[in-house]
Every structure is written in structure tokens, then in C-alpha cells.
Amino acid sequence: MADDTLKPVAQRHERVRRQHNDELAEDYVEAIHGLLEENEQARVTDLQGIFGVSHVSVIRALDRLEARGLLERSRKEGIRLSAEGQQMAQESARRHELVVKFLRVLGVSNTRAEADAEGIEHHLSEETLRAMRRLIRQRERG
Amino acid sequence: MADDTLKPVAQRHERVRRQHNDELAEDYVEAIHGLLEENEQARVTDLQGIFGVSHVSVIRALDRLEARGLLERSRKEGIRLSAEGQQMAQESARRHELVVKFLRVLGVSNTRAEADAEGIEHHLSEETLRAMRRLIRQRERG
DNA sequence: TCAAGAATGTAGCACAGGCTACATTTCAGC
DNA sequence: GCTGAAATGTAGCCTGTGCTACATTCTTGA
Predict the structure, then answer these.
(1) Does B1 have pLDDT greater than 50?
(2) Helices (H), ranges, chain B
(3) Four-way CATH pick for A87-141: 1.10.3720.10, 2.130.10.10, 1.20.140.10, 1.10.60.10
(4) CA closest to A46 among chain B residues
């Protein structure tokens, strides 16, 4: 069923399903990007600790991301992000920071802001992100 | 691995995975509740139209929800929500309305607010919901 | 009343993303 | 250089959530 034959409510649900498909990818490239910046390497074990899943789940996720062209792996080089992967990581990180900051400005505690941001950051339109930036600016000005 | 042995970042990711498991349930009971109020019946076909998936996916989802005790089905009576299902539906609907209203207050268009709310409403802590209500009240007074 | 079309249900497939158990590879310290 | 532990990888399982193709059942209008 082509998207434009769907009722609006169905299009919204379809969009959320698509976003769920991208969530794991965004979370992984963001985490890998952070690890590479910090340690110059990103290991399966590190990611296992970050996501709280078995190392097998990490490896299978990396397989999928490699198939999607977001990263490459080799024995000697370890995990490296492709250009596309790096771009996705940077955008994700920026969006994550924005959402956390927005929640902090709203008065949400740091812990909660970090936790809720993790869930919602993949589901925000550009329009909503702009509105969030606007509120942050307003509050910063006083 | 017990949750409290995980690193904080892993706990956050674990929470998001749990929320994803509940999303479909909440969306379905909310939709069914709305249909029952409007039409006095909720049919597979209606839900198929709302979610934009095949009728088979709807039936399988209903099977799972029935197994979870959120609803009952019978030939003659159709789909009815259990007490638990009704409560979940009402809470979901209230939360959905709150999020939409919050985004509207932020200046987001109605279409975008509805769409983004669909994605994020399942991932908000009580603390963040309170902060959203607070901002709505401020804007309504000012 | 009965035949066609709508609604519902079943069988069986795919893929994502979890898991444990087992195998291999890499690396650090003796 | 060897050995044990850490890291990585493989095999094979489960569940959720999507699908098409094929029944079956219900409903409605000629």
C-alpha cells in the first residue's frame, strides 16, 4: 500500500514505524562516534556495556549497519564509520543535546532529561526541533 | 543481567526497549476505545485503516493483547476492552492530548503536533509531563 | 433465498533484535 | 613462548510485527 493512499492517521503510524527502524542505527553510530573520539577505538564490548545487551546482539546489529553502509569493520582497524555514518552520528548527537537542553530549560532534572531524550529524540520533526530551539533562546535571553 | 547491575546509560536504553514493547498495546487500546465511543463497535477493518497495516497484522496484535488481558473478543460481542485496557486507553488518550497541546503551545502546527506526539508520547516520564503542563499553564495565563 | 462481496481467520514466510551455548582469536603477564 | 582470560564470532533458538495467499463466515441486496 503506497503511503499516499493511506489515511492521515495511518500515515502517522507508518512514520513512527519507520522511525523505529532507524533508531537502532542512530543510537549505534552515535555511540560509536563517541567512543572513537574518546578512545580512538570502539569495541563490541564497549557497545555491549552502553546498550546493556549481549555481545551477540551487538555483533548482529553491527552486521546490519555494515550492510547498510554506515560502517566498516576489519580485524586490524576495528570499527570505523563511513562518511554517511559519521554524518548520521553528528546529526544524532546534535539533536540529542538539543533535546536534553530543552528539557533542562523546561525544568526537568538532568537524569530524567537524559532518559526521556533517549526515547523521544528519534521522533521529532524539524518543525518541533525549531520550536524547541526558539524556547531555549527565549529562556536564555531572560 | 539484572537492571541494577547495568550502567546508567544501559538502563536508559533498556527502558526505551521496554517502552517500545508497550507502544503497540497503548496505541491499540487507545484506538479501540475511540472507536467504541464513536461507533459502539471496533472492527478489525477499522483498526487496519487506522494503523495502515494488513488485517492479519491487526488480528495478530489483538491476539497478543487478548493474551495480555487488555481486551476480549467474541463473535457476537466483537472487541471489548477489559478494565485494565480501558484504564490504559484513558491514560494514553490523556497523555496524547497533553503532548499535542504542549506542542501547539510551543508553536508547532497542528499536523506536525499530531504526528510528533504519536512518536514521543510513549517515552515521557511523569516529571517531563508535569513540566509540560507547567508550561501550558504559564502560556495560558500570560 | 442465495450469491457476491466484506469481514474475519489461518498458514506460512521474512526480518529485526533479543538470548544461551559453544568456538575461535587476541592479548597480557609470567 | 605459553597459558589463561578477554574479546570476538557462530549456531541456533525465541518473540514481535510485518507480509501474501488461501480459507471461512457474515451480511446484504436482487
Answers:
(1) no
(2) 8-39, 44-51, 55-67, 83-106, 110-120, 126-141
(3) 1.10.60.10
(4) B10
